[in-house]
Every structure is written in C-alpha cells, then in structure tokens.
Amino acid sequence: MVGAHLGRLTRSASGAPRLYAEALRRDDIHPPEERTVVNAQDNARTTETAGERSAPRGDGIVIAIDGPSGSGKSSTARGTARAREMRYLDTGAMYRALTWWVLHNGVDATTADAAAVARLAAQPVITMGTDPTDPTVRVDGTDVAEDIRSPEVTSGVSAVSAVPEVRERMVALQRDIIAEARRDSGGIVVEGRDITTVVAPEAEVKIYLTASAEARAERRSREVRTSDIAATRADLMRRDLFDSSRAESPLTQTEDALELETTGMSLDEVIALVVKLADEASGEVVPSTGAV
Ligand SMILES: Nc1ncnc2c1ncn2[C@@H]1O[C@H](COP(=O)(O)OP(=O)(O)O)[C@@H](O)[C@H]1O
Ligand SMILES: Nc1ccn([C@H]2C[C@H](O)[C@@H](COP(=O)(O)OP(=O)(O)O)O2)c(=O)n1
C-alpha cells in the first residue's frame, strides 16, 4: 500500500485543489500551496475568523474532514487517528445524539418547529469519547451509540442540525474538545459538514472527501446490508441536498480544502494518503518539491 501510485492533484473549476486516484506516487503528494500550513512549533499563534473564538494551539495538530454522506469521512478519520495516535471526533454523532434526545422526548424531529427543537436540544449533557479505537457518545450518561444510527434518527437529523441554536451549542462543544486535544495529545481528526469552514478553519490539514453518488450508495448499502441501492442512494441525495442548502453552516467546499475524490480508492489507500498529508503538516515528513 505505502509507496503505491495513488493520486493526481489538479484544480477543480472553482480553483480548489483536487486529488484523483490515478498515477502519482505517494511520495509526490503534498498539500496544496493555498492551504494555510501552520507549523506545529508555532505554539503562540491563535487564529481569529469572523465570529470565531480564538483556538489555543499546543503541539497537537487538527485534521478537518468534510464531505457528503457515505464519502468515507468516519472510516477515514478513525483510521487516520488510529494510525497517528490522535483523538477522533465524529461531529455527525453529536447531531444524531441531539436528534435522538428530541425523539426520546416524543417530538417528531422532522415536523417539529425550530423553537421546540432548540428548547429541547439545550437540555442534555452530550459527552463524546474521542478514543478512535472506542469512540463513545452519551446523552445524560446514557450510551446512545447504537440508537443514534436508527432510521428514525437518520430521517430527523438534517432538520435538527439546521436549527441555529443546536449548531451554536454543538460547535462550542466541538471547539472545546479540539482545544483540549491540541493541548493534551497528538491532536485530533474531526469530521462532519462544517469542520473546514466553521468549526476549525485553522486546521493544519483540511480535506473535502468525495466519491460518486453511485460509489457512496454502494458503500452505504454494503454497510447496512441492503440490496436496495436505489433507495439508499435516494436517502443520501435527500440528506446531501438538505445539508448543503440549509441557511446555517451548509456543507460547502472551500478553495483551501484539498478535495479528495475517492471513487476508485480503497479505504486503506485513502487513510494512507491522509496520514501522509498529516505527517507533512506536522513536520514529520518534508514535502517533496515535485510539480503538482
Ligand atoms: N474508499 C473506500 N472504499 C470502499 N469503502 C469505503 C471507502 N471509504 C469508506 N468506505 C465504507 O463506506 C461506508 C460509509 O463510510 P463512512 O466512513 O461511514 O462515510 P461517511 O462518514 O462519510 O458517511 C463504510 O462502510 C465504510 O467502511
Ligand atoms: N458537522 C456536522 C456533522 C453532521 N451534520 C448533520 C448533517 C448530517 O446529515 C447529519 C448526520 O451526520 P453523519 O456524519 O452521521 O452522517 P452520515 O450518515 O455518516 O452521512 O448531521 C451537520 O450538520 N454538521
């Protein structure tokens, strides 16, 4: 796997750097020049983005991964965190946990008014365990790791996560977890829909993970063991549309995130590539100087 020919960096129409799984040696892959690479030794630096809090910087780096449903964010983030001994944060699980809480309180998340969701979502204590070998999610102490994957939660989570008060609360919690990981560990891999844009725009590595709709639907169908790929695809498309068109922090691809198109890549290849980018960003590997 390591040393294999993995990808080719080009520019997308928007100018964003894009990585295709084709014919470039792993050793030739390096972060795009637009990306703000913050030296790991630059402890004193804080980054202020409009409306953002300052991010305290320790030795740990942050790898931010956004992308549509089924693109491989969770598996890639977890695998990378394990390989590099970093923490791991699945922010989607946090929105799912709040959606579970809303449903648990007898409210239909898809039809509830935003004020009712906001009121309910302010109540529970959400606790995230960030060990990539055993990530946990608790609502007021109850382990909800399994329940948050139910079809009911999946149907309601886009509506709940579009409520501004919900996002405000979750983003504050996510930034606290990130700050702690920077300070106390080798850093953290965070994945979701607004990590590169809102939660951690100062991240050393920013990736927009994609794959074709067909590949994503196939992956998800295999995961949930259904042969109805068309229904899975329709569900992914519905959620993608909702998540990328909402007013509050929609899923968007920015120019300074590396687009990683994974349709033809195995999970191991994707992880190896992200590990390589992280090694370079943390100064453990000197980027090669070959042309992109
Ligand atoms: N590059 C890949 N090739 C094949 N399967 C993949 C790849 N990346 C992820 N998968 C599989 O696809 C499914 C969805 O991946 P997941 O990480 O949950 O995506 P996301 O978090 O973006 O929704 C999982 O079963 C995962 O193992
Ligand atoms: N940072 C994030 C992460 C997830 N969300 C929302 C939008 C998503 O449809 C849901 C569920 O996210 P999750 O990552 O579990 O989604 P997948 O089913 O893995 O594709 O949460 C969000 O709004 N912002």
From TrEMBL:
Matches recorded under SUPFAM superfamilies: P-loop containing nucleoside triphosphate hydrolases (SSF52540)
Biased segments, Polar residues type: 38-49
Keyword Kinase set for record: yes
Ranges where the Cytidylate kinase domain occurs: 63-278
Cellular localization per UniProt: Cytoplasm
Residues the entry annotates as binding ATP: 67-75
InterPro entries: Cytidylate_kin, Cytidylate_kinase_dom, P-loop_NTPase
This enzyme's EC code(s): 2.7.4.25
One GO term of the biological process aspect: nucleobase-containing small molecule interconversion
Molecular function GO labels: ATP binding; CMP kinase activity; dCMP kinase activity
Entry keywords, A to Z: ATP-binding, Cytoplasm, Kinase, Nucleotide-binding, Transferase
Signal peptide annotation: none
GO cellular component: cytosol
Broad EC category: transferase
Biased composition (Basic and acidic residues): 23-36
Region (Disordered), start-end ranges: 23-81
Reactions that this protein is recorded to catalyse: dCMP + ATP = dCDP + ADP; CMP + ATP = CDP + ADP
Family per similarity comment: Belongs to the cytidylate kinase family. Type 1 subfamily.
Protein name: Cytidylate kinase
Organism: Halostreptopolyspora alba
Gene name of this polypeptide: cmk
